[in-house]
Amino acid sequence: MNVEFVGRVGHDGAVSTTDNPETTARRRGRRPAGQDTRTALIEAARAVFAENGYDGATVRAIATRAGVDAAMVNHWFGSKEGLFAQAVLELPFDPMELQKALRDGPGDELGERIVRTFITRWDSAGGGQFVALIRSITGHEQAGHVLRDFFQRFFSGLISSIGSDRIPLRMNLCATQMVGLGMVRYVAKFEPLATEEVEVLVRAIAPNLQRYLTGEIG
Amino acid sequence: MNVEFVGRVGHDGAVSTTDNPETTARRRGRRPAGQDTRTALIEAARAVFAENGYDGATVRAIATRAGVDAAMVNHWFGSKEGLFAQAVLELPFDPMELQKALRDGPGDELGERIVRTFITRWDSAGGGQFVALIRSITGHEQAGHVLRDFFQRFFSGLISSIGSDRIPLRMNLCATQMVGLGMVRYVAKFEPLATEEVEVLVRAIAPNLQRYLTGEIG
DNA sequence: GTCTATACAACGATAGAC
DNA sequence: GTCTATCGTTGTATAGAC
């Protein structure tokens, strides 16, 4: 799928000046200013993704619950994945665009690119968003399922492009390293890692990630 | 809380009493049934650890808040670290005993022992305890500080025994791998890793942890 | 009477003030 | 360097539950 990332990233703009979000009557044409379709979609998406996982959740179901047309998903978030990123994971980047960028370059340096990009993006977004992500995962029972689907899609696409065996396990192992990195740097804030230079961490962690991607894992 | 009679017994057997209810002196000997010193210590420890971190919290301060003697910490929990494990981290094992066990064996197999023990212990405890641990870290602001102190003490003791440089960073890197492993196996429950055989994971992960412990990290 | 939870004193280690 | 305060821990006598 070719995805153009339209949705805003991270910040909550001054969009929501809604006075009554519980209106059930639907009109055709452009709705009055201040009716925050985008927020309604995010809330509906949180519920539907949590209930059914990524693959099980349909754009139509989300739009119906939000009380808007399904086309609004593409208008506000570019794609189903863009909505997913904004609503559930609150990622500070677009997964597809990132995956595409990571594929550019030699396969034996993929781990390096992943670690560098991961730290750079989350750093610039501020650690608070990662904390919110983890909290949503530990809080809701189904949120782990959502993250699992996402990781599977994201990492398995990367790994398959360099042709390793035991893709599912390798994807899981990569997840342990990257999630743990986020936990230590942004949630628990261990020193010196939390304030360490990016390239130092890349040199330290990338070889381990690369082993999970293409190395011998027993 | 549990002081209804305030008195002090001198060496000569004379009993001097006071009617001041705020006197800190307490009777010796076994207290009336139903006065749960152990629970009082855990509750006090939660508060003091959360306020001051591991090193900042003193056994005496905890005992004072619980209204008992500091020696009760050793009597009921073996040590300050045992109390910490029970009260804040709710670990399914005793950190000191575990650290001692991990030191037995060749240094180049330390990573293997850590991974195997980590998975075995948490598996037998059920993943729910790990979820609770993570939730307490993400929830309370100070809990990350507590975990940080604990990890530092636990891992730095292990690493220093095998003599590597850059101990603090290596400890942090080990934390990324182990915390991430716990997140993926017990919280997010990625498959196949969540139900994978222990020894398969040991072969996959131990070399990476060993590199953080004694290898070249850039 | 027996057992044990308890308080108190004291020890070695350690960190900071002077 | 010396002194002091405080830390975690240990030993021990004992009060009170059983």
Automatic annotation (TrEMBL), chains A, B:
Residues 1-37 are annotated as: Disordered. The keyword Transmembrane helix does not apply. Keywords: DNA-binding. GO terms for molecular function: DNA-binding transcription factor activity; transcription cis-regulatory region binding. PROSITE patterns: HTH_TETR_2 (PS50977). Residues 35-95 form the HTH tetR-type domain. Residues 58-77 bind DNA. SUPFAM superfamilies: Homeodomain-like (SSF46689), Tetracyclin repressor-like, C-terminal domain (SSF48498). The keyword Chloroplast does not apply. This is TetR family transcriptional regulator. It comes from Amycolatopsis vastitatis.
